[in-house]
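Dear Dr. H.,

I hope your travels went smoothly. While you were away I took the liberty of generating a structure for the chain from your last submission, since the lab meeting agenda had it listed for discussion. I wanted you to have the full record in hand beforehand rather than looking at slides cold. The sequence, exactly as received, is reproduced here:
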Amino acid sequence: MPMVKLQLIDGSIYDKEGKIDAITGVIDQATGSVSMRALFPNAEHILRSGGTANILIPYIMDDVINVPQAATVEIQDKKFVYVLQADNTVKYTEITIFNLDNGKEYLVTSGLKPGDKIVIEGVQNLKDGQKIQPITPAQKEANYKQALQDQHDGNLATAFN
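The corresponding predicted structure, in token form, is as follows:
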């Protein structure tokens, strides 16, 4: 068995890895969960006997692409993203995702290839074939910092562009 991680009740991940000690083998029909016990180093006494948490078992996948859920559009149980084309137009593209939802991102198993650039903000305002002016995260950060500086300096005409 591989080493496992522990997701605490507040959603944070315990910083030490552990190993599975026992598994019941019975699946709870209501939740789809399995009870198990794992042993973790606990020198700081953060973990308490009888506590409940989620054990995260690693699952290695090849050829998947991680995309933010906010970058997707869902229509009739299908997921789509807008892929940037060479001419700065966007192409509405269906994707297939791995059935694991952490509320933040999806693991795309088909529909995208390494190197594809997708729109990650404002997808609700786009249409297939629409021309856009893409910016990188670094450019977005620079624009934000400039807007803060403009606001600080009283240049309100440029601070909110």
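Two observations you may find useful: The mean pLDDT is 89. The helical segments are 137-153, 156-159.

With kind regards,
E. W.
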